[in-house]
Design a protein that fits this description.
- The structure is a single chain.
- By secondary structure, the chain is α/β, with parallel strands linked by helices.
- 32% of the residues lie in helices and 21% in strands.
- The strands form 2 sheets. The chain has an 8-stranded mixed beta sheet, with helices on both faces. Strands 1-2 form a two-stranded antiparallel ribbon.
């Protein structure tokens, strides 16, 4: 049995375990409600996206593409909420950086989107993490087969962990930028990374062993031994999910006890993101 540990997020306390593939898998009972629904339907920016289907092995999954055709590609990986408004906001912003990118969001939850923390935890708990890595690989290959000469991967929280894993496990990945998430050792060993990795963490992130300062420094040591180019940045005064800045996201964060807002840190992180992806993917 994996050893349970307490993870404290501001005023809320959750019981998590270090399971074999899911770094935040819950051991505690949860309200298990799911709402299968079209992930793109509630946002006015949905018209900017092209919905596609990607095949891998005997599975087909939806993905959403925005940005310039034939530009360098970036796979954008969701937080534990699913493909919601905020991951779409990130993808649109990424598509407009530098000379432009083609951003692709794979729907790792197959249409499910969480409405609260319990749902989000349950959906992530049920994720096939090795299968998610295969989804990422198929997404990278789709972009490269459809005009993107090079492809990077980025992600947030759960997606951050998966983006680092992709830099280890998916040879087609050309660069990674991860936000506040690290993979379990059973999923991927960052010391074996093959793609350049840049990672961002908040100084006051309280997700112990996953995205707190200790996890960030541990990741840095592993990347140092990998021999690949890397950067690990820690942002003073910031907590988990500090890149989420829409009014809806700020309201959700406050409901979780995350009250910090730091636009200067957000701007700096985006600047570093743009420089990193421009360096390894080129500009459109």
């Amino acid at each position: 049995m994996a050893t349970a540990r307490l993870l404290r997020c501001a005023s809320s306390t959750f019981l998590f375990s270090t399971c074999t593939t899911n770094p935040l898998r819950s051991c505690s009972p949860l309200v298990r409600r799911q709402h299968p629904r079209a992930a793109m339907a509630t946002d006015s920016s949905a018209a900017s996206f092209q919905k596609i289907q990607i095949q891998r092995e005997d599975t087909t999954f939806d993905a959403y593409v925005v940005g310039k055709e034939n530009a360098p590609g970036i796979v954008v990986l969701q937080e534990w909420w699913g493909v919601d408004y905020e991951i779409k906001n990130h993808a649109i912003h990424i598509s407009q950086l530098g000379g432009g990118y083609r951003a692709l969001i794979p729907d790792l939850y197959r249409g499910k989107v969480a409405l609260d923390v319990a749902e989000a935890q349950h959906l992530m708990e049920g994720l096939d993490w090795q299968g998610a890595v295969k989804d990422i690989q198929a997404s990278v290959k789709w972009l490269k087969s459809n005009g993107s000469p090079k492809v990077g991967v980025t992600g947030y929280c759960m997606g951050g962990a998966l983006s680092i894993a992709s830099g280890v496990l998916v040879p087609e990945v050309d660069a990674v930028v991860a936000f506040y998430g690290t993979p379990s050792s059973e999923l991927a060993d960052p010391s074996k990374a093959k793609a350049p990795i840049q990672a961002h963490f908040g100084e006051h992130d309280s997700f112990v062993g996953f995205s707190d300062v200790t996890a960030a420094k541990s990741l840095e040591e592993k990347l140092k031994s990998s021999g690949i180019p890397y950067e690990v940045h820690i942002y003073p005064g910031c907590s988990h999910a500090f890149m989420n800045t829409s009014p809806e996201a700020l309201k959700r964060k406050k409901g979780m006890g995350l009250t910090d807002e730091n636009q200067e840190a957000v701007d700096l992180a985006w600047s570093r993101f743009s420089s990193w992806m421009g360096r390894f993917l080129g500009s459109a």
